[in-house]
Fold this sequence. Notes:
The chain is built from eight helices and two strands, in the order ααββαααααα.
Amino acid sequence: MLRGMGKKPWRNKTLWSILGASVAVILLWNTPFLYPLKVLVVFFHEISHGLVALIGGANNVTITLSPNEGGRAWADGGSHFLMANAGYIGSLAWGSGLVLCSAYTKRDSLVTFVLGLILAYVTIRYVRNGFGFGFGLASSAALLAAGKYLSHQANDILLKIIGTTSMGYAVLDVWSDVMIRSCLSDATILARMTGIPAVAWGSLWIVLSLAGIYGTLVTAARIDRA
Length: 226
């Protein structure tokens, strides 16, 4: 049983709405409907790399996105160790933040609108390839429109779907790129830097992500305002 929710889990509407969003994402994961959302969470991942680079004093931060749901972030200076760790941890943080915002505030439309503004700024300031620039502006425009024209309930669902997808990405992508197949990833970069196997880094991120997802569910479900 999840503790600290106030209501019994099976009667908690907030918990069920989050779980419902998660099930919808899982069922549609390999369909074209989720393609824009999957690229969006990759964008969050790359933004996290770039943000940590800027905090570490790096210059010339650039972000690219690719149509095959990939992306990269570069920077001159900063801590490359922290930057490499920031991607999946950042994906979890973005997702958790959006889910908690949807659960704790009735101003979901404002949250969606502000998210659109953030993506617009990041795109114009840091994205440096055609696909990424177009996707960034399109996704920011979609979020701005959703925040302005859709209902509170619709924005609440939208934030939960985006948030759960971003949290799940931190688990699914690590499993795919590190555990199932060997390819260039944040984990392999850290393995080259530290000598610690990529699988160890991947395992660490999966454990942290699962703990973070559980904590987010418990925290979000404490307020049942659905």
